[in-house]
Design brief:
It contains 11 helices and 10 strands. The protein is α+β, with helices and mostly antiparallel strands. 42% of the residues lie in helices and 15% in strands. The strands form 2 sheets. Strands 7-6-8-4-3-5-9-10 form an 8-stranded mixed beta sheet. The chain folds into 2 domains: 28 residues; 219 residues, no CATH class. The structure holds zinc ion. Zinc ion binds next to loops.
Length: 298
């Protein structure tokens, strides 16, 4: 059902999940993005977007859709959330690895049995073995990501992730469940198309998903970030577009950092406030020396 990938170096055809050309061993790019570049995924997504545009034209509201798309183009970033300990490691030169690779490398403990089963199942259902090589992020307009995954929001430089990032309309755990309810049988068929795409298609997925809300908002720019990403009381109440970044991220990919908890709160929550104060000083020195912009929210 999927088209073959044509090798840019030698023009031979390859299966869409290949990263290296079977003939010349040249690079074929990133498998998560290559999968979603197939017409099976692209054509329905584009049709839905054209429907959204036509609907906006019919309502005489095309400017609202274009305004939101312009904001996404100008300020939409991939944001990864984490805690202070992990950020400190990354700023010391460690890579932030996909879950399975981090567990294998002894860099993080396994999560609970059920959670790991679900994670492994969902990743394999969408991407087969390449699902193990995904780092998760959210699409944000104000640099603030999913607080339920850590109070520190790391914005990534778009030019370091765009070619290796795929986009889902929501958390893949819940999308998986919704697709199952609609009759999808992973492994026997491709997942439904229309809500998954490449980084280049992120605006289409945003507009299709949030059309009514964007029209209702009537162009109030200050509301754009919270229309795109809603932090819930718990992870299951978050509402966002999920980004899948192939391979890993490290300090060279960081554009800027937003600390959503202020220093006073961090110190008041610390077991050892003096130690934490030193840690924060070291962190700020490190950030200054690397030239990464950061801000503390009050
Ligand atoms: Zn080739």
């Amino acid at each position: 059902m999927l088209e073959k990938i044509v090798c840019p170096a030698c023009n031979s055809e390859n299966e869409r999940n290949r990263t290296i050309c079977a003939t010349c061993t040249g690079s074929l790019g990133f498998p998560n993005v290559n999968l979603l570049k197939d017409p099976y995924f692209q054509v329905p997504l584009d049709s839905l977007f054209q429907e959204s545009l036509n609907k906006a034209i019919g309502l005489n509201k095309k400017d609202l859709i274009e305004g939101f798309c312009s904001a996404l183009d100008a300020a939409g970033k991939a944001v990864v959330n984490m805690d202070l300990a992990l950020l400190t490691k990354i700023l010391s030169g460690e890579d932030y690895l996909p879950y399975h690779l981090a567990v294998e490398a002894g860099k993080r403990p396994k999560t609970t049995v059920l959670n790991e089963m679900k994670r492994s199942t969902v990743e394999a259902a969408f991407y087969a073995s390449d699902g193990m090589k995904i780092v998760y992020a959210s699409l944000s307009l104000d640099g603030i990501g999913l607080i339920n995954y850590g109070s520190i929001s790391i914005s990534l430089k778009t030019n370091t992730i765009a070619t290796r990032t795929s986009v889902f309309s929501e958390n893949s755990y819940f999308l998986y469940d919704r697709f199952l309810d609609a009759g999808w049988r992973p492994g026997n068929s491709l997942c439904p198309s229309g809500e998954l795409g490449t980084w280049e298609e992120r605006n289409k997925i945003v507009i299709n998903k949030l059309f009514d809300e964007i029209i209702r908002n009537n162009g109030e720019v200050s509301n754009f970030p919270s229309i795109l990403l809603k932090n819930g009381d718990g992870r299951s109440e978050d509402d966002f577009l999920e980004l899948h970044i192939y391979n890993l991220i490290n300090q060279h990919h960081i554009e800027d950092i937003t600390f959503t908890k202020n220093k006073r709160t961090i110190l008041s929550e610390a077991d050892d406030a003096d130690y934490m104060e030193t840690q924060l000083l070291v962190l700020e020195e490190k950030l200054s020396s690397t030239g990464i912009d950061y801000k503390w929210l009050n």
